[in-house]
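Table 4 source record.
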Amino acid sequence: MRLDQLEKLLVAALRSSMAGRPTVVPEPGRLVWSWFIELSSTRTYHPAGPNAVSFAEIEAWARLSGWTLQAHHIRLLRALDAAWLDVAYASRGDGKTKPKKPSGALSADAFDAVFG
């Protein structure tokens, strides 16, 4: 199975699971699925909602768990996390969407305006 196919199947399974529907996790993705569930359970939150699982958190979890992750594992974990966040923010019911990332480069003037 190709990586992009596995990614789509895992994301579909996650969306199905979060909607309370029966979920079939594809066999080649079951280990990554279990990793994501464990990582997601340690997710932090801010006043506007959940945070993404960071690369640092993934790296620390892998080191502490004794797993050696490869680039394709990270890609799948990040895809699952992005889908999880999309569903979590969409299901809030308050009309708010996921916070937008800043667009454009950060200038010295903009930095000074925020941090003085």
